[in-house]
Amino acid sequence: MSAKKVQKSVRQIRRYELLNTRVCDLPLKIEGTLRICILELYRELRRKGIRFRPRFYLGADIGDGWGCVDGTICIEVPFYLANRELTLLHGEYSPDVESPGEIMKILRHETGHAVNYAYKLHLRRHWRELFGDFMKRYPRAYNPRRGSRRHVRHLDLVYAQRHPDDDWAESFAVWLTPGLNWRRRYKGWDAIEKLIYVDIVMKEIAAKSPIVRRIAYDAPARRERRTIAQLYETEAVSALGEEEMEEYIKDLRLIFSRVARRREYHIPAADFLRRFREAVVDGVAGWILHSNRNSIMKILRRMEAVCRHYGLLMVKSEEGAKLAEVTALVTWYVLSDIYEL
Question: What's the pTM?
């Protein structure tokens, strides 16, 4: 097999492996572009002398995965922005992949919500006079005035008109944006009064600790038990052909079967591998001095994906024997990687 073909096979296997992984099983952490953007937001807050820092977490919602949890200082960001691999995969199924500039605009807006909740600004009389009733229900639909000068324009032309809370958050985001001379940009607009109010209030509370420190998460990725394929409502099995997983399928077919004479005596091999994943990792890592647990786990996820793709089965009563065979196979793969066998 040519090097180019091998690389394509590895990419396809990895893609299939990802699609068939439950979101809660992903080793997620905020890194890459998203981390850079959050650090930039912190610098913007610091330049304004603001002590407060919101708490960010990765959420499982791929449709509208951004948001500040009501009454908390927690901001949800979509898990597919956690790293480049997930972002590229998301781009295959959705046209909406945020650019770094768009990420920064959303971060400023959501931080505006968090600041509002942290300092209970919406309880202030002047806040209510300018922005409206915070307790007003969010409308299912609304008819915004596209040419309105009573509201700033940040995420789009009319987002600030959705609700008083969004009016504040959009005004805060405009005020926070570096290099934007909001006094000149909104001179002559009614919205200038809101921006001046943001400026006054933020200077007042900048060095103060937040009143509210409540932590709560809405649909965090670490609790999402669906696979990525299920989230995107796609058939991950169509992504790979037998040729592209030649080595894995050849070895796994020696252990498991595709045919069951009496299915009640069989279980899916993928479920078996998932159940004994930790035991295999512990065993192999304990035997091989220079092995890496993450590398072992990656091999097992790949084997699980192949078994699920081909519908491989095993007899329930043979669990002990099959566990020994799988452990031996994983050990061989790990040794092959270490010593380039």
Answer: 0.70
Helix (H, G, I), strand (E, B) or coil at 246: helix
Q: Tell me the CA end-to-end span of the chain in Å, nearest whole number.
A: 16
Largest CA distance in the chain: 80
Domain span holding position 285: 241-339
pLDDT of residue 144: 77
**Same domain for 126 and 96?**
yes
- Do 205 and 245 lie in one domain? The reply is no
Look at residue 227 and tell me if it is in a domain. no
Are β-strands 55-59 and 74-78 bridged in parallel, bridged antiparallel, or unpaired? parallel
Tell me, yes or no, whether 130 lies in a domain: yes
Query: How many domains does the chain contain in total?
Result: 2
Q: Is the pLDDT of residue 240 over 50?
A: no
Burial of 169 from C-beta contacts in 10 A (0-12 / 13-18 / 19+): buried
- Cα separation, 192 vs 171, in Å, equals 9
For 309, the token pair is 């793709």
